[in-house]
Design goal:
This protein is 30% helix and 21% strand. The protein has helices at residues 84-91, 116-131, 148-158, 185-194, 198-203, 206-210, 233-244, 261-267, 278-290, and strands at residues 3-4, 7-8, 12-13, 36-37, 40-46, 49-56, 64-70, 95-99, 135-145, 166-170, 216-220, 248-251, 254-255.
Amino acid sequence: MWLLLLACAAPIQVEAGSWPTVGCVSAEAPLWGEQELEPEEHVIVHDGRHIVVRALAPAAHGCHPAVLLVPPGFDEGLPELDELSSVNLARAGLVVVAFDPSGRGESPGEEDHGGPRHQDDVAAVLSWVAQRSDVDTDRVVVRSRSLGIAMASGALARHPELEPLALYDIEGPASLPENLEYAPEKTRETFEAASEGDEWWAERSPDNHLAHFSGHYRRVQALEDHALGSYLGHAQELLNVASAAGARVDYNGVPGEIWSYEDVEDGALEGRVKHDDRRAMDLLLDLYGEDGG
């Protein structure tokens, strides 16, 4: 059994985009098995906005890798910390962080549909994660899935001083509104009702942001996309855009530089994939192993 105890703290003022030059220097061995896990709840304040954040840290004291979970679509983020997959990541030795973007769940404000305000929310929370005394600054991964890539890629493109180990993207779209042609009707209707024109779409289009990203981009993609079905053109586009921008790019763990549509089909995972799929979990943990984890 695992026990969750909630620890609350006073609001923390954070500058979106700040990144420490020195982090903790030693890490203890990962711990599996039964542990008493104590989620922390914090309020991150930036640009006058209050973002509610929860973190689940390993029971052992030390210097740990971390993962920031960026919520998909129009979802709240905090519930992700209650999932067994998040608990298992903490048991494996990671500091796992989730948050509600502005206007969602427990964070007040207006919904921004993955736009600049949400991107700054990601940047502020990521800065806070990297500054934690129990986090190895060199081993922080940003994990997004589905439409979460809009705010995740936007945060890293607009705040190049942020230096996570990798951007780990599970089946995010590439071009908006073009990719919405293949999306569920409810998603299309929500975006179209909120749209304010070409600039609004451009601010939320991941291909625009990855064109300015030079870090490590890992794309996780199944043959049957969770939202776009058998269409895989969005995966091909983001892989090639990131590569052209000078990023270190891999597709389901296999590095490359240029992908044809056939390459994307051939390299896709069989069936469908979810964030808590064993294959997706292994591809996440593998990122830390590459860097000495």
